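Section 5.1 Outputs to date
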Amino acid sequence: MPISPIQFTFAPGGDFYPDDGFFENFRRELERLAPGSRIQIVDPANWSADELAETSVFMGWPSDAMLDAMPALRWIQLPSAGADRYVGNPRLRDNVALTTASGVFGVAGAEHALALLFAVARGVHFHVANTLENRWRMPESSFEIFESTIAVFGLGSIGSETAHRLSCLGARVIGVRRTVTSTVPAYLAELHPIGAARAVVERSDAVVLAMPGTPETAGVFSREIIEAMRPGSILVNVGRGTAVDQDALIDALKTGRVRGAGLDVTDPEPLPPEHPLWSAPNVIIASHSMNVFDRKNERRFSLLTKNLELFARDEPLLNLVDHTRGY
């Protein structure tokens, strides 16, 4: 059943720059569900309060000033999987639904995590350096994923897709998450709460971090946890750089306790050229490029239209975020 007209505002920015087809197709969906609705596209760096005054639905990453300028706002659809900057934000009213693009990045994120894991495990960075120097040389060793034990911290869309694929490759996968239920997915050998982190890393050959950026996950991979990792293990991070004590990681890489690290994320970002992480041994830094893939806006469109249907029916939206927890 059609709903009352709404004002839908898009604010492209970051990696969210849909083409004209995206907006035209969405316009048709919006007209079907809410006849008489309006769509506008604003520049997040150059907007006016008058433009946003009647906005009821917003897609983009609104600044605090934009939030203040939208008194009629009912729903924000973020283009990203993370909602870090909105956790506990007093400018975001409790009655405004906040949804992420979790799921959009699941497959690409898992493939990216596996790419980093394989690259470190097989010493791809070593071979690239040899190629650039016209040098024929083999590494001293490599790591086999088959029959290894790999821990995945964070079982959202990216973490779950990663764990599933690792299981298919013959790894024994241990899942770690904030809360544990009695139901353990078939692709996990074990499931533990975050409080068991030390015990888990002590017996893991590799660790993949896919946790969101929240106050609870900040610094969770502390020096204590890193120093407890199994000697010669691998660390991959496709979650948030704030989860890792980078000084402790650098020390562990230098001593060889950690064989290598594949880092899509760091703290800060961008990582300054003089930061010691760049020169740490056996590190691959991927410049937060997990979200670079061809079908991204196609999947965002699919999620947006599904949520629009739910919004029209006044039903719970997909990927609804708890304002205090951030996921």
